[in-house]
Amino acid sequence: MPEITLDELLQEVKAKEEKMGESPDVTAKINLTATRLEQTARSGSVKILTDYDADGICSAFIMQRTIQSIAPDTHVEVQCNDRRGSYGVSSEIESDGVSKYIVLDMGSNQLQQLQETLGDDVIIIDHHLIEEQINIDAFNYNTRLLNPHSMSYEEGNSADYCATGLAYRLYQQMQERVPEMIHSEKQDNTIAIMAAIGTAADMVDVMDMRSNNRQILKDGVEKINNADENNIEYPIGYMLATAGIGQDDVTAHDVAFNVGAFLNAASRMSEILQENGAQRMYDAISSGDNPATYQQIDILAEINKDRKAYISELTGTESYRQFLEEQRNNPNNIALFELPHDTPAAFAGLVAGKLAEATDKAIICVTYSSSRECYTGSGRNVASNETGLKDFLDSLDLSDKMQYGGHTDAIGISRLDDIRFLESRLEANINAMERKSGDRLVLKMSPQELSSPETLEKMKAIEPLGTGLKLPPMEIEGKEQYRNGLYVKKNPSWKKVRIKADDTTLNIPDWSYSPASYPQDSKGNIKILAEVGLNSFNGQSVELTAKFDRSFQQERQKELQHDKPAPKKGAERE
After folding, report:
1. DSSP string across 366-393
2. Which residues contact 426 (CB under 8 A, 6 or more apart)?
3. What's the pLDDT at 563?
4. Considering only CA atoms, which of 5, 82, 409 is closest in space to residue 267?
5. How would you classify residue 556: left for phi > 0, otherwise alpha for psi between -120 and 50, otherwise beta?
6. In this predicted model, which residue has the larger pLDDT, 492 or 320?
7. Sign of the torsion formed by the C-alpha atoms of 192, 193, 198 and 200
8. Rounded distance between C-alpha atoms, residue 69 and residue 177, angstroms
């Protein structure tokens, strides 16, 4: 099994960082769009239509501040997409005849509709895949349209900015273009933090060679770690604290899974709350320093608690556990999971993500909506699969029975008429979802090194980790101290595996614990595959988290077969 050390990884990261930088053609396109944005900002009235997730909220926050910094007298209204409807700009949207329109984090595949309803001067800033060549051409040549996916590169990759990253780059360009732009260090710091939140939450490539993603994350995390009431806007500081960002240093992972999840919580609960949760969230964090702001953020914190309780309920059912166990032992690389009828569609992506991680395969998760009389849902892929999830679905003959879109490995399903049709198409083409071949890379490190100060400093230097940069897992073998694991937060699926390896006792959380994942050999040893990361609770430290890998499990079963003692002479064989 090929191995790599932390020192070798750090050298690789530093070498790539030296070559990173925004592609010149992307910079040129951002500059051209900035010219149009300045004209729109000075128009007197602007409406921003944005998506309902953390990326949509953060990009709108930055865009509103950008416009108001250029033209303080311009009226700016932000309208967040309602998650209870379909993805994208509503087909019922109409121009008010006065305002100029900016569409964020959506709209690339609705270009004709938006230009017909909102005018040819509509600005669209998006990062989703563009499906039709006519729209790709329009984004390439129209300076009001900005989506790096319209640009072609030799390697076939475009700058992996999310909408927030693009909005932030426009804010930075405006500071150079407009000398009279009104901004302060406090505002710059706050916007840098929002840029990092949106970038981390949208899971873009932290090692993308054609963008400034890595620097955006580094700068934002540094400003969070050095924030006080004097250098960032207090409402955003209060929101960070409410989302669980405390006194200890944080990582990009903390930003994504604490703050990003908090920003997404209200919109995910929209169907339950019977309101546009994204709008409530945006209005709360952008309404300024006043008591009502903090009251609303406190209410949103309670909504976030309800969101956590609901997802725990969905993942605590017997059908969920049964599906998980079945799929862990199933050779297929993609599977379909059905949630109870009328589960809010916003939770399908969360469940799909959890199941994908727990089963190491692509998961499509759907729920039937009685009001819409169809299925909706989401799909998530895993790094172990060679085939992209959207590419796989595009290769199927889904006709008009399923409408979906999104990214290469994260898709949203807006309509599915017949779940059995999808099920049959998956079964007929199951082998088309291919798995990556080759040996798995593992991290060469002893259990004793995990707690050393030197390892912690190297981990900090490698940060930010995320999509595009995940440390290889460690293989750890030793005696399991408790056969049934230790409960975490009293959830039967959340346990810690306590293992004694090389005279070092390790507690390794497993968020989808199953005793079957830890078979013992003849000497009572188990072998565990664990991801290495940074824990920011009570000061930074290096932590391990159990990782389920089907290839690893198969290898372990083969090892155990060879480990079986030979039958005694004369013993009967079955």
Report:
1. EEEETTTTEEEEEEE--TTBSS-HHHHH
2. 334, 335, 336, 364, 396
3. 73
4. 82
5. alpha
6. 320
7. positive
8. 12
